[in-house]
Design brief:
about 280 residues, alpha/beta, Nitrilase/N-carbamoyl-D-aminoacid amidohydrolase, 6-stranded mixed beta sheet, 16 strands, about 25% helix, about 30% strand
């Protein structure tokens, strides 16, 4: 008997106000759930996307005290789905937040979280630069968690995508699906997004679910969109060909992971610290 899992990637255009972001996401979440998705994944910075450091720090709370995060937990319960909020800014040490993925069970409780390890400190030229480490405290550990349909989920975020050793560790730990919620810039997305997503699927022999932010945001940045779902052989099985909000759904045959890894076991080659 094959192991089938229906999943969805929701593309958003989050702004600086968490409540408005949730309201804009809600119709897309409902569409995904109505389409039979058992696991729904949203992009990086789903809660709020804001480059204003002071404003972001002032808004950051813990998952237990943040009213909007609790509303997302209730959405998982209301829709009866596993819901991965791609990321939220969570209070960390003074002057810093974690860029954290939050995975909610269909009963609404928080199953697992992952703090982004690799921070986006780059100089792209033309006046476009980012220094995520000025605001974000890096995570330390890869994370794998039991998910719907007896699946094993590996959690990553955006810039992590460029570090294949992390993905090798997730594959070695048994991850069958790897989530890559992202807010890729237009510049880097146009050049590298699709190639890197497919490469990580091929590297690991895992399914990749990569929901992205897209379009011009309230804080002034422009993101690439083009959310993707890719199979273990590197084939794109669903993709949005634009940067507007939208929903992707796909049926995953989880048995493909084992058969693909038997053919090309390259994922065994690299080493990372043990996952949690």
């Amino acid at each position: 008997m094959t192991r089938q899992l229906r999943v969805a990637a929701v593309q958003l255009r989050s702004g600086i106000h968490a409540a408005e972001n949730r309201e804009h996401a809600l119709p897309l979440l409902r569409e995904a759930a109505a389409g039979g998705a058992q696991l729904i994944v949203t992009p990086e910075n789903t809660l709020r996307l804001d480059r204003d450091r002071d404003r972001l720090l002032a808004a950051a709370n813990s998952p237990e005290t943040d009213v909007e995060i609790q509303r997302w937990a209730r959405l998982a319960q209301e829709l009866g789905v596993w819901l991965l909020m791609g990321s939220a800014g969570i209070a960390a040490m003074p002057g810093k937040v974690f860029n954290r993925s939050l995975l909610f069970h269909p009963d609404g409780h928080l199953v697992a979280h992952y703090d982004k390890i690799h921070l986006f400190d780059v100089q792209l030229g033309g006046g476009e630069s980012y220094c995520e480490s000025a605001t974000v405290q890096a995570g330390r550990h890869p994370v794998i968690v039991d998910g719907p349909g007896d699946s094993r989920l590996g959690l990553t975020i955006c810039y992590d995508l460029r570090f294949p050793h992390l993905y090798a560790a997730l594959a070695q730990g048994g991850a069958e699906i790897i989530t890559i919620p992202a807010a890729f810039t237009y510049t880097t997305g146009q050049a590298h997004w699709s190639t890197l997503i497919r490469a990580r699927a091929i590297d690991t022999g895992a399914f990749i679910i990569a929901p992205a932010q897209g379009g011009r945001h309230q804080d002034g940045r422009t993101t690439w969109g083009h959310s993707m779902i890719v199979d273990p052989w590197g084939q794109v099985i669903a993709q949005l060909e634009h940067n507007e909000p939208g929903v992707l759904t796909a049926e995953l045959d989880l048995d493909l992971v084992a058969t693909t890894r038997e053919k090309i076991p390259a994922w065994r080659g690299a080493m990372m610290p043990p996952v949690n």
